[in-house]
Amino acid sequence: MFSKYKKKHTISADISMTPMIDIVFQLLTFFMITSTFIQTSSLNVDLPEAKTSDSIQDQQNTITLYKNGSITWNEQQITLAELPQKLQELAQKDPNTTLIIQGDEGISYGDLIEIMDQARGAGLNKLSLATILKK
Asked: CA–CA separation, 85 vs 87, rounded Å?
């Protein structure tokens, strides 16, 4: 008589997916935050190499000087006469911003100093020279 009312106990072997999904999302978030997105210019610039290069994440304010004398501001072609106006606008927006100067290995030292002098004259004091990490 008691055997009629006895309940069957089954063991459930469910695997909870929640902890695994949490870990996958944490890994995804980690790699998204730590990865860098590098914008390369369409013209070829041979940057000088240095053993003590530091990585800069912000590529917003970049001047590129080419061997042929051309200049780009954030990948847009400009003339040397337009440069002071661009620097003034940048200094008015945020005088503490970092200006990155990418100079081809073949440019003259005088051209580089002229650009740096114009940037300081506009009120920009944080200048960074782009290089490639020497291996």
From this structure: 5
* Contact yes or no for 61/101 (Cβ under 8 A): no
> Where do we find the tokens 């440019």?
107
Full set of structural domains in the chain with CATH: 49-133 (3.30.420.270)
pLDDT per residue as tens, the chain (135 positions)? 555 666 666 777 778 889 999 999 999 988 887 775 555 444 455 555 556 555 555 557 888 888 888 888 888 888 888 888 988 888 888 878 888 888 888 888 888 888 888 888 888 888 877 766 666
> Structure pTM?
0.54
The 3 state secondary structure assigned to the chain is: CHHHCCCCCCCCCCCCCHHHHHHHHHHHHHHHHHCCCCCCCCCCCCCCEECCCCCCCCCCCEEEECCCCCEEECCEEECCCCHHHHHHHHHHHCCCCEEEEEECCCCCHHHHHHHHHHHHHHCCCEEEECCEECC
